[in-house]
Write a structure and sequence with these properties.
With 274 residues, this protein is α/β, with parallel strands linked by helices. The chain has one domain: Rossmann fold (3-Layer(aba) Sandwich). The protein contains ten helices and eight strands. Strands 1-2-4-3-5-6-7-8 form an eight-stranded mixed sheet, sandwiched between helices. Keywords: Hydrolase.
């Protein structure tokens, strides 16, 4: 991996292959290795770029007291500029899907294409009355849980709450994928876990009207209904939006069904203008 020196951090990234640029942005509390099945497939034909978002992986903790999706997008823009990627194809998972949406909202026609896996617009994935979100924030309770139980146990309790509410194995239907994700969460420091969660919760998504970037939204059929509806909303909002639901897959759809995910992505990529 290589580090890009930012003003207040070193952003670690990795490249593989040559050709058209394909940039992958991972989900919350994961890292760039979450895209390994896609790197192995697409590095044969594309210049594949993975990164560790600040607070995650080798990039790790930074001195910022607060993170935001906007800040993560600033970092993505800096990386694209550093690598000279003028028309990248962007692929984001969960938190990464928010970063890609923010990028496309800022630059409606700059990305050559976008693939959004486990895509959501906001967290919680439901409309709240204007001004109510700060007063309903779970961050204080989450901080208390982190101080006592740590990131892995706190995340496990969040998953339990989702399953109790929806009856779905939301994160992943594959025990090995789930275990790998839990291990990655356990490597995130308490303070960084809280800052990432706060960034997700506070994010106010931009309107996507006018975004002309061809976009493919991919969800698993074990996704929560509210997140699934947000994915449908994204596909409707952009000028060229498409949506696919893969069976026997959860939120980490690219790892639960890597072959099907890669095939669908390849078909989409082949449809993009040269």
């Amino acid at each position: 991996m290589t580090a890009l020196a930012l003003e207040d951090a070193h952003l670690w990234y990795e490249t593989a292959g040559e050709g058209r640029s394909l940039v992958f942005v991972h989900g919350g509390w994961l890292d760039g290795t979450a895209w390994q099945p896609q790197v192995e497939r697409f590095a044969r034909e594309y210049r594949v770029v993975t990164l560790d978002v600040r607070g995650h992986g080798r990039t790790g903790a930074t001195d910022r007291g607060r993170y935001s999706i906007e800040l993560f997008t600033d970092d993505l823009e800096a990386l694209c500029a550093h690598l000279g990627l003028e028309r990248p194809i962007l692929c984001g998972l969960s938190l990464g899907s928010m970063v890609v949406q923010e990028f496309c909202a800022r630059h409606p026609d700059r990305a050559a294409g976008a693939i959004l896996a486990g895509a959501l617009r906001s967290m919680p994935p439901v409309d709240l009355p204007p001004g109510a979100k700060p007063f309903l924030s779970p961050t204080p309770a989450l901080s208390a849980s982190l101080s006592v139980a740590g990131p892995r146990a706190t995340f496990r309790s969040l998953l339990g709450a989702v399953r109790a509410t929806t009856g779905r194995r939301w994160l992943s239907v594959d025990p090995s994928v789930r275990a790998s994700a839990m291990n990655a969460v356990g490597d995130v420091p308490r303070s960084e876990f809280r800052k990432v969660f706060d960034a997700l919760y506070r994010y106010d998504p931009p309107a996507l009207d006018g975004v002309t970037t061809p976009t493919l939204v991919i969800h698993g059929d074990h996704e929560t209904p509210l997140v699934d509806s947000q994915g449908a909303e994204i596909a409707r909002a952009v000028d060229d939006g498409r949506r696919l639901v893969l069976e026997n897959a959860g939120h980490l759809v690219n790892q639960d069904r890597p072959g099907a995910f890669n095939d669908a992505s390849a078909t989409f990529l082949e449809s993009l203008p040269p």
